[in-house]
């Protein structure tokens, strides 16, 4: 179970925090680290010092340019967030996150990403809206900003407790044999791109005046946890709608399989 | 409740860890920090950098020479320990610790110390045997040594969760109105000193061949959580025993009230 939990750090500024994160992960039995557009050299003497023997995780980390790439294959993406937002998003506690993990990861192809933002500014709204849910570590309201590696430590600790309690074979897995695979993050993003293009085509959505339309549709869709099959149906509907809206255009070769490419 | 939880760091080597501890504490609403014989200058640029705004806790920290002094007024002393010992001690999980705190701190005069050892060697056996219980943060057996500030972070997080769940008025407090005050750590240590001296006097105990006798008696006594009144009775018994064992000696002026002094 723990090997299918990925820690994603976005725009980290301090190598020491990357080292501290690696140590916290390895301490709790996590190994999959992804760095999105780090704002520092990830592997420095500070990294190795704070990693205290866990720098192999930094060597093995994947460094990518966007959150998309880091979580493309994940079925559940949870962002660590301190702030309450103008558009409320499903918010869970670290403990509730831990309790959800065994069933999440028992689903076919299940993979979970825990996403942590920049030391100074956290996650952007766009990044937060790419998450199924936000997790908030309870803190002193007068001093709420946790050190990055400390925040990873707390969530990794909850992951380990959940794993210890439920082991590799949660009770729910037996009932899940006929469950369909959930859509991956990448498939969902292809869908949202397709959806937005279609809404523009039918004159329902003006990107110059977005009014949180896409954010609301994202929230709704992510809350439903679509299966891949369901997403294919939705994309079929969008393709047909697009054809009606722009009958003069040739088919764009839109694919519903979720492969990267035309959109 | 949180203001009656003390974090005690013994023999810390790295100022950064003291700063990181202060930040973790302040994030979780803890404020009472004690440093026992630090092996570094506690307040350096590293401390302030890692404290990230919480260095007031380090300024306010009490620095003392011994664990005794740091926890003298505490009714429950819990040591963070990674190792299993030759003499097994009551061992609790961080979560179970959190669950115990509200009732512990609702008791008259209740005060809890969470004790953390050296970065390189943890707590000594003598220090561990001064604790009522040991708390073990579950870790990857292949990489079990947590960063000091990260360990404080996890336990402080459990303290905060317990406080959030139970608030300041646990249900048990109403039933506890007629409860006797528990013995403080200092009173217990006076008792153990008195007990050992008495056991030597009666020829039952040879400090040159201790065979864990005192450790076993400590474990037994601490498990019982003696009230102050009970300890006074036990000390009265010891005083009388001593008089019988050494009838030639004048009274040592032994006091049963638990004040520091003759022993």
Automatic annotation (TrEMBL), chains A, B:
Primary place of residence?
cytoplasm
CDD domains reported in the protein's UniProt record: SpoU-like_TrmJ
List the transmembrane segments: none
Q: Which residues form the tRNA/rRNA methyltransferase SpoU type domain?
A: 5-157
Q: Where is this region: Disordered?
A: 242-263
Entry-linked Gene3D superfamilies: 1.10.8.590, 3.40.1280.10
What Pfam families does UniProt report for this protein, alphabetically?
SpoU_methylase
Catalyses: cytidine(32) in tRNA + S-adenosyl-L-methionine = 2'-O-methylcytidine(32) in tRNA + S-adenosyl-L-homocysteine + H(+); uridine(32) in tRNA + S-adenosyl-L-methionine = 2'-O-methyluridine(32) in tRNA + S-adenosyl-L-homocysteine + H(+)
Q: Where in or outside the cell?
A: Cytoplasm
InterPro entries documented for this protein: Alpha/beta_knot_MTases, RNA_MeTrfase_TrmJ/LasT, SpoU_MeTrfase, tRNA_m1G_MTases_N
Q: What is its EC number?
A: 2.1.1.200
Instruction: Tell me which UniProt keywords the record has, alphabetically.
Output: Cytoplasm, Methyltransferase, S-adenosyl-L-methionine, Transferase, tRNA processing
Could you say which protein family the record assigns here? Answer: Belongs to the class IV-like SAM-binding methyltransferase superfamily. RNA methyltransferase TrmH family.
SUBUNIT field: Homodimer.
The protein's matches in PANTHER family, at most eight in alphabetical order, are given as: TRNA (CYTIDINE_URIDINE-2'-O-)-METHYLTRANSFERASE TRMJ (PTHR42786:SF2), TRNA/RRNA METHYLTRANSFERASE (PTHR42786)
The task this protein performs is described as:
Catalyzes the formation of 2'O-methylated cytidine (Cm32) or 2'O-methylated uridine (Um32) at position 32 in tRNA.
Q: What is this protein called?
A: tRNA (cytidine/uridine-2'-O-)-methyltransferase TrmJ
Q: Which organism is it from?
A: Halomonas halophila
Which taxonomic lineage is given here? Bacteria, Pseudomonadati, Pseudomonadota, Gammaproteobacteria, Oceanospirillales
């Amino acid at each position: 179970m723990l090997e299918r939990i990925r820690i994603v750090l976005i725009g980290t500024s301090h190598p020491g925090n990357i080292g501290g994160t690696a140590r916290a992960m390895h301490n709790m039995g996590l190994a999959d680290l992804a760095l999105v557009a780090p704002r520092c050299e990830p592997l420095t003497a500070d990294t190795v010092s704070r990693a205290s023997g866990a720098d192999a995780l930094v060597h093995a980390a994947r460094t990518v340019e966007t959150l998309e790439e880091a979580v493309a294959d994940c079925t559940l993406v949870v962002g660590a967030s301190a702030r309450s937002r103008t558009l409320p998003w499903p918010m869970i506690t670290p403990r509730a996150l831990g309790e959800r993990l065994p069933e999440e990861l028992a689903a076919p192809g299940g993979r979970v990403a825990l996403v942590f933002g920049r030391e100074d500014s956290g996650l952007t709204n766009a990044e937060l809206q790419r998450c199924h849910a936000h997790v908030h570590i309870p803190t002193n309201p007068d001093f709420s900003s946790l050190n990055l590696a400390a925040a990873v430590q707390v969530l990794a600790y909850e992951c380990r407790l959940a794993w210890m309690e439920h082991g590799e074979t949660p009770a729910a897995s037996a009932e899940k044999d006929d469950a369909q695979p959930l859509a991956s993050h990448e498939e969902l993003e292809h869908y949202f791109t397709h959806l937005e293009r279609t809404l523009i085509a039918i004159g329902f959505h003006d990107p110059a005046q977005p009014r949180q339309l896409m954010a609301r549709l994202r929230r709704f869709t992510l809350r439903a946890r679509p299966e891949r099959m369901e997403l294919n149906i939705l994309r079929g509907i969008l393709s047909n709608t697009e054809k009606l809206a722009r009958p003069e255009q040739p088919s764009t070769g839109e694919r519903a399989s979720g492969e990267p490419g035309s959109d």
